[in-house]
């Protein structure tokens, strides 16, 4: 799908690009660029770099500048300040593990499409009150998995989800088959041992396999 990074990107664009949004934890800034290249090479362009490590913002900045085709986003956005820092670093979208109106407002102010994290009906309602209908279901498997999404489809038919947390190549298809799931998120495309070893070919392979999940 043709997506011009930064040009009116929506949360739905982010979800539609590939079947999986990789959740990336960068421990070493030097890994960010080759890792992003490996994922793009495998057809995965929307890259969620979690703000869990001190070099996450530097990694987002490096990917934004140096990896054509990559669309870096910030994960683990937990405050308005996180949203502002992510946008300044060059993030093109944001993902949060939960939701507050302050985060929603801050993302709008800095122009970041946001996938707010929800795990209950009340949280869905709060996100919807602020205009968010594309949501991350987190943590998906511990919170009820596919059965929960099926149950939500009744009262929330307009909401589209990206289940994340406990999703893997083994269960991704069960989620992707649901009418209210557009994509899934997961850390399995970037195994810590492959990143540490610089095994970028393996990461490209995992990315390719994940792209095929949608058509298979
Ligand atoms: O850091 C965040 O903002 C998160 O929301 C957490 C991640 O999305 C999950 O930890 C990924 O879960 P796994 O694929 O099961 O490893």
Task: Write a structural description.
This protein is α/β, with parallel strands linked by helices. The protein has one domain (11-209): TIM Barrel, CATH 3.20.20. 44% of the residues lie in helices and 15% in strands. It is built from 10 helices and 9 strands. The strands form 3 sheets. It has a 4-stranded parallel β-sheet. Strand 4, helix 5 (101-110) and strand 5 form a beta-alpha-beta unit. The protein is globular and about 45 Å long. The two termini are 17 Å apart. The chain binds 2-keto 3 deoxy 6 phospho gluconate (ELE). The site of 2-keto 3 deoxy 6 phospho gluconate (ELE) has 14 residues, from strand 9. 2-keto 3 deoxy 6 phospho gluconate (ELE) binds next to strand 9. Belongs to the KHG/KDPG aldolase family. It catalyses: 2-dehydro-3-deoxy-6-phospho-D-gluconate = D-glyceraldehyde 3-phosphate + pyruvate. Its EC number is 4.1.2.14.
């Amino acid at each position: 799908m043709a997506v011009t990074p930064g040009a009116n990107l929506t949360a739905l664009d982010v979800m539609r690009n590939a079947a999986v949004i990789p959740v990336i934890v960068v421990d070493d800034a030097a890994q960010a660029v080759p890792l992003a290249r490996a994922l793009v090479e495998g057809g995965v362009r929307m890259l969620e770099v979690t703000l869990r490590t001190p070099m996450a913002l530097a990694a987002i900045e490096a990917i934004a500048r140096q990896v054509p085709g990559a669309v870096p986003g910030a994960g683990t956005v937990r405050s308005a300040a996180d949203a502002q820092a992510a946008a300044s670093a060059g993030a093109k979208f944001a993902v949060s593990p939960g939701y507050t109106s302050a985060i929603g407002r801050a993302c709008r102010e800095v122009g970041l499409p946001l996938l707010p994290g929800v795990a209950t009906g009340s949280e869905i309602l709060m996100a919807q009150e602020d205009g968010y209908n594309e949501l991350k279901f987190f943590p998906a498997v511990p919170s009820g998995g596919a059965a929960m999404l099926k149950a939500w489809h009744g009262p929330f038919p307009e909401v589209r989800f990206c289940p994340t947390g406990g999703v893997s190549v083994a269960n991704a298809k069960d989620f992707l088959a649901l009418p209210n799931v557009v994509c899934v998120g997961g850390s399995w495309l970037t195994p810590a041992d492959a990143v540490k070893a610089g095994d970028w070919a393996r990461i490209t392979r995992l990315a390719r396999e994940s792209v095929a999940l949608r058509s298979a």
